[in-house]
Amino acid sequence: MSIFLFKIAFIKNRQMAKTRNIKPEQKISFRERMSALSNLPEFFKLVWQSSPGKTTASFLLRIVRSAMPVALLYVGKLIIDQVVLLNRHEGSQHELWKLVIIEFLLAIATDGLNRMISLMDNLLGDLFANYTSMRIMRHAATLDLEQFEDSVFYDKLERARQQTVGRTVLLSQVMSQIQDFISIAFLLTGLLTLNPWLILLLLISIIPSFMGESYFNSQNYALTRSQTPERRELDYVRYLGASDETAKEVKIFGLSDFIINRFKTLSDKFYADNSKLAVRRSAWGTFFSVLGSLGYYAAYGFIIYQTVTGKSSVGTLTFLAGSFRQLSNLMENSLNRFTSVSQGAIYLNDFHEFFEIKPNIKVAASPLPFPNPIKQGFTFEDVGFKYHNAESWANRHLNFTLHPAEKIALVGENGAGKTTLVKLLARLYDPTEGRILLDGADLRDYDIADLRLNLGIIFQDYIRYQMSFSQNIAVGNIDEQDNTELIRKAAHESLADALAAKLPLGYEQWLGRRFNEGVELSGGEWQKVALARAYMKDAQVLILDEPTAALDARAEYEVFQRFSSLTQGKSAVLISHRFSTARLADRIIVLEKGKILEAGTHQELMANNGRYAELFSLQAAGYQ
Ligand SMILES: Nc1ncnc2c1ncn2[C@@H]1O[C@H](COP(=O)(O)OP(=O)(O)OP(=O)(O)O)[C@@H](O)[C@H]1O
C-alpha cells in the first residue's frame, strides 16, 4: 500500500519537476548515487590532510561510543533480573549496587564521549573548510582569465565553494554511520541470540521510510542544483543592496526598492520551491514514522507475550524491547543517513568537477630564457582574438612590432580592442589566430611567470585593495613587500608620496572604508597609488591602460614627465583617450573595430588627415 502511494507521489512529482524547471538530467538514479560513493576515499584523503591527529581521534572515539548502547541495555537487563531475584529473596544486594554504579559510569562515559565527538567534529569541520577553501583558491589561481569570465565556470566555482562548508556535515555523517554500524552489529548479536524473528519485523518497519528519504533527497539535490545560477544572482543582489561600494549609486538613483523587489522575487521563488518539497517530505515522513511505530508495537506485544508465558525473564523483556527500539532507530537513521551520505558524495562531484577544470593557456614544457634586454621586440603576426561566446572579433589582423625602447600609444573609440591587445601581450589570453613573437620566438615558448615579471601593467579597472597604503603599492611586486625603500621610491615616481605625507598614519595608513580606521581616497589619489605598482619592479615593458583618466591636468602633466624619464630605454604601451597624452608617444596606433586603422607619429597622422586627425581636432575644439 505504502509503495503504491509512494509511486503515485513519485509520478506527480515528476510532473511538478517539469513545471519547476528541474532539468531531467539533474535527477539522479540509485546507480549514480551508489557510484558517487566512490568519491568518499578521495574525500577522506582531504579530511585526513586537513588534520591527521583529529581524524584519528574522532574515529577512535566513535568506535568506543558505538559499544555503549548495547552495554547500557545489557547492564539494565542484569539490574532488572537482579531486582526480580531480590524480590524472591534470591539475589545479592552487593551485586545489584555494583551493577547500578556500572550503569551510572557508562551513562557518564556516553555523555562525555558524545561531547568529545561533537567537539572533534566541529574542530575538524573548521579545519576542513579552511583547507578546502585554500585548495580552491590555489586551483582558481592556475585558471585562465577567460574561464573566470564564463558563467558556467562561476556556477562550478560557487558549487565547489559551497562544498567547503557543506561537506563538513558529510564528514560527521560518515563517521556517525560507521559508529552506528558497529552499534547495530552489537545489538543485532543480542537480538539474534535471544529472538531472531524480531529482525524480520524490524526490516519491514524501516524499509518504506528509507525509500521515502532516498527519494526526497534526490529531489532536493535536483532542486538545489537547478537553483545555482539564481542563488548566485541572489547573493549579488544582496551585495548590491548592502555594500559600501554600491551605497553611493543606490542612494543617488533611488535603487533600494528596485533591488529589494528583485531580491524578494528571487527569494520568494526559492521559498515556494523549497517549501513545496519540505511540506511533502514532512507529510510522507509522518506516514512512514507511523509505520515504524506499528512495527515496534507489534514486536513489543510479541516480547510481552513471551515474558507472560514464562519463555523469557523480565530483564530479557526490557533488553529485547530496548534493543528493538534502538535498533529500529539506529537502522532507520543509518539508512536515511545513507541517502544523505550518497547525496553528499554526489555533491562531491561538483567539488571534483571544479578541480578537473584545467587552464587552456599552456605553459611551455622547457621554456626559453626571457631575453634581457629585449632585442627585436614584440611582433604581432596577423593576430586575431575572439572572446568566448562573442559574435565578433575583439582584435583582427593585427600586424605591428613594439620595438625595444619604443613608446606606443593605442587610441580608438570604446570597444575598439585596445585593452584586449594588451591582455594578449601579457598572455591573459592566447590569440585565436595568428601569433605574437618575442625576439623571433613565439610568446608561448617563454615562461609565463617570467613574461609577467617583465611587464609592468596597470589596468584601468585596477583594484582598490582594502589594505595599507604601503601594501597597495607592494602588490606590484609582492616579493618586495618588506622593502620599504623600494615602496617609497615607487610612490615618489608615481607622485603618490605627497599623498602618504598627508595621511595620519603615512605608509601604514589603512585605505578604504571597509575596515576600521580606513581612509577613503579620491579617484585620482587611488590612481596615483595604483600607478606606483608599475614602478615596483624593474620591468622591461611598461603598460598603462588609461592611467591618468582620473588625474587633474597638473598631475597628468607631471606623471607623464616622470613616466617619460623613467621609461628611458624601456618599451611602453600607453592607452589613452586624451590625445594630449597620446601625442607624446613615438608611434600612435589607431584601432577601429579591433583592426589597425592607421599608425604613425602625431605629425604623420595629422598630415594623413584620417581618423586620428579627425578625433584630435574634435578634442582640441572642445578645449577652445
Ligand atoms: N571579457 C569579455 N568578454 C567578452 N567580450 C569582451 C570582454 N571584454 C571586452 N569584450 C568585447 O571586446 C571588444 C573590445 O573590448 P576592449 O576592452 O578591448 O576595448 P577598449 O578599446 O579597451 O575599450 P575602452 O576604450 O572602452 O576601454 C568590445 O566589443 C567588448 O565588448
UniProtKB/TrEMBL annotation:
Highest taxon of source: Bacteria
InterPro entries found in the cross-reference section: AAA+_ATPase, ABC1_TM_dom, ABC1_TM_sf, ABC_transporter-like_ATP-bd, ABC_transporter-like_CS, P-loop_NTPase, Type_1_exporter
Gene3D superfamilies cross-referenced by the UniProt entry: ABC transporter type 1, transmembrane domain, P-loop containing nucleotide triphosphate hydrolases
Major location category of this protein: membrane
GO CC terms in record: plasma membrane
Domain ABC transporter: 378-618
Segments passing through the bilayer: 181-207, 283-305
Lipid bilayer topology: Multi-pass membrane protein
Entry's Gene Ontology molecular function annotations: ABC-type oligopeptide transporter activity; ATP binding; ATP hydrolysis activity
Annotated localization: Cell membrane
Residue ranges annotated for the ABC transmembrane type-1 domain, each copy included: 57-343
UniProtKB keywords: ATP-binding, Cell membrane, Membrane, Nucleotide-binding, Transmembrane, Transmembrane helix, Transport
Protein's recorded name: ATP-binding cassette, subfamily B
